[in-house]
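Hi Y.,

Following your request, here is the sequence exactly as I used it, all 210 residues.
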Amino acid sequence: MAEVRRRRARGGVARTREALLQAAAEIFAERGYDGASVDEIAGTAGVSVGSIYSRFGSKRDLFRELMSEYMERDLARVRDGFAAGPEGGLRVLDDLLQETAASRRQTLLDAETWASAMRSPRLRSMLAEHENGVRSAAAELVQQERVATGHELGMPDDEFAVVLTALFHGLCRQHRLAPGSVPRGLYARTVLALARGLAEQPPGADRPGH
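Below is the corresponding structure, written out as tokens. Let me know if you'd prefer a different format.
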């Protein structure tokens, strides 16, 4: 009986955490980071304000956890895709781009987060930390695929990762403004073209920054 109670308690904790993260995503998207209040987040989740402080510590830490949750969820999908080969990984990334761009909540959350980060050095630092995590994971995948295929890119893995993430964000914005201008598969085709072009450069060719 004691073990059953413990399992139920753990299940309750997990459900409360998920409810708070879902509510936080909704409120941060609609109100922005600065306009969101822990009272409204707790009320939307149907729990007490104390639940936020006991589980996350602060609004800032709740926001950080929300960003980490999104990142880990998306990276798991991408890694599973690349486990089947470069084409599979790029298909997943292309699907993720289309889904992210089409999501009203994600669109608002990205826009509100960026605007708030430009006004707040603390939030900007946290967002930079999040983006560094994304780029590090991308650089790791680039390295794995480069080693597996034996194709050299002619530029550091981390620099190529910067280009990949910037392209992803840029195409998301373009899709949100004019969906028809970003057809499915465009991201994957562009990444392959970039990688192919870099790999075909003759050894010793002059490159910007070198």
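The two ends are 67 Å apart (CA to CA).

Thanks again,
Q.
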